[in-house]
Amino acid sequence: MIYSSNTFYIESLKHDDALNLNKLLVSNTERFKLYLPKTLSENRTLESTKTYITRQHELMSSKLEYTFTIKDTSSKSIAGLIILKTINWDKKSGEFAYCIGKKFENKGWMTLAIQATSKYCFQKLQLKKLQIISHKTNLASIKVAEKSNFVWQKTLKKEFTPVGQQPIDMELYELTYEK
Q1: Cβ–Cβ under 8 Å, residues 174 and 129
Q2: Measured in Å, how far apart are the chain's first and last C-alpha atoms?
Q3: pTM higher than 0.70 for the full model?
Q4: Domain 3-127 classified CATH 3.40.630.10?
Q5: Distance between CA atoms of 114 and 82, rounded to whole angstroms?
Q6: 154 with 172: CB under 8 angstroms?
Q7: Coil, strand or helix: which one is 46?
Q8: Domain residues of the chain, as ranges?
Q9: Which residues share a beta bridge with 93?
Q10: Could you tell me which of 109, 127, 82, 104 has the C-alpha nearest to residue 4?
Q11: For the chain, which terminus, N or C, has the lower number of CB atoms within 10 Å?
């Protein structure tokens, strides 16, 4: 377990999370479709979610990507995900992607979860720099980055192409490890 409080806890994605993960993603499809199209497309059915989890475990074992769940302490249901991706072990850097279900938003959980996961990445994985890339209109994501002490670096021109749309600019935020 990476973090635990009275309201939620964070742990690595597990095989027995399949039903909960599928419910989170399917019930929040409209909310997640713009910025998480790949994750959504890989979790349309319970069977595809089981395959997704197996693949995520292979990526974690290879130290290429880490997927963490944010779980509600009382119901044990998955409230959200944090994915550490684009890891560069030479530069000791990685990028966070994250989402939280509609019924869990505006509780401050994602900010606390990003702070706790950042600490884990710095202390346990020995990373030195973490990134969050968000669109300027995704105000909730930008608020999470800023409240977690990530600092805006620059606008990345045509960084992301939403499904069926033109490439869009994204904002780069970074957090550097300081002892």
Answers
A1: yes
A2: 23
A3: yes
A4: no
A5: 8
A6: yes
A7: helix
A8: 3-127
A9: 88, 129
A10: 109
A11: C
